[in-house]
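Inputs:
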Amino acid sequence: MDDERNMTNEKSIIKTRNLNLFYENFHALIDITMEIPEQNITAIIGPSGCGKSTLLRVFNRMNDVIEGVRMEGEVDIDGQNILDPAVDMVALRKKVGMVFQRPNPFPLSIFDNITFGLEIHRLTQKKNFEVIVEHFLEQVLLWDDLKDKLHKSALSLSLEQQQRLCIARALTLNPEIILMDEPCSALDPIATMRIEELMQELKKEYSIVIVTHNMQQAARASDYTGYLYLGRLIEFGVTSQIFTAPREKLTENYISGRFG
Amino acid sequence: MNAKIQEKIASRILFFCTVMVVLPVVMILAIILYKGIGAISWEFLFSMPRNGMSAGGILPAILGTLYLVAGAVLFALPLGVLTAIYLVEYSRDNFLSRLIKLAIVNLAGVPSVVYGLFGLGIFVTFFQFGASILAGSLTLGIMILPVIITASREALESVPQSFRVVSLSLGASKWQTIRHSVLPHALPGILTGAILGIGRAAGETAPILFTVAAFYLPKLPTSVFDQTMALPYHLYVISTQVPGIAENVRYGTALVLVFLVLMLNLFAIIVRSRFRKRKKW
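Outputs:
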């Protein structure tokens, strides 16, 4: 496949070149070369097991948690190859935040969930915490609902609120990129819609990469889409083009629902 | 025989077995309480034994047991918890780690008298601690290590993986993740293990037999190199080795020991349920 076709005209924030990833002997990501544009929402779609989540977790090196993972190639973020063994993992993960499939707040208060990262990294003094908590809860549109119960357990919230809280928790580290791994799969359609609206707000300040199983979501909410199949990036481009005029037969088969 | 009758018989048998299990516990407690409560008095709890242990109190034995238990926990809790953290969070699944886990399981199966002999050989003789609180505490500590390690491992493993993943994704180091996102949530389980270990250490006779326990020593220890009396051994002595001890003194001593262990277990239950209420997932 021609690599040139996976490029965009926008300024890119993540660039991968010939990225290969192996789980033991399984070749999970094959020769992925792509550029993810800054301050846009980029969706990665594809059938189960195609490597979407694995690709996402390359960008904050969360695959390192798994034994037997090996990566080759290059992934540039801000001009630094993050696959370099010498890369500062703490700095990388501060720069690249992540939101997970299931809302996963800590079983602590709402307040303590927001301040978790601040405390770990000693980013600010405790006396600033209240202002910061308000700021980030405002940003994810939770402040009005939660301002009177900041010290209640985060687990008492609805799933949608929990997921917003998790987004806020990721934002506290002031990331450039937010990775979202099927962030709405545990939510109902209305909550999903509202999270998508929030993403549109967030993309003004952050670059978002979202993995989704839900093609309609990719079509609705993203600016760019990459289609991944069996570990290969089949096609990458502007979302409207991918969904209306895919260049590749495989992409067309998938988005038209012939399989997946 | 139809299913209905079978069902009836099965539930009766199961119920009967369950009652059979509870019965001895209730009877032991009832008999000890009935026969021993008469001996309990201020003097019995807080004074020295007199007249070859036939009169006076059991203070040195109570304090001795408390010292031994405290020493055992001081030694075994940090060591056990840190070992469990290593095994759960750091070690990879390989031959060595499986060997370590196997060793710990086996350690739990060693008869307590063997710990006693081991303590005698290592601490009393080789390290020349003599028969002392130090030697006894270390021996008891080694005996309760597997309890603490196993409970801590289970507690750590029961903390959802997602806590670790989230914490790492927020840029926390592995140790920060353990310290802030794993340990606090494993604490109730770890404490439960510790207190179960304490209960066991308080009640065992064999490990202290050769390493610390004094037959009759009507004074309080002044350093960790002193011998001391201890409740389980004292009970053994006055029940079998010294003739003419009043029955209520023997049962009174047993009552104090059982009460001590029950209190520790009760404490464990309260601590655990309080933590559970606070942290849920």
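Remarks. The CA atoms of residues 35 and 255 of chain B lie 9 Å apart. The two ends of chain B are 46 Å apart (CA to CA).
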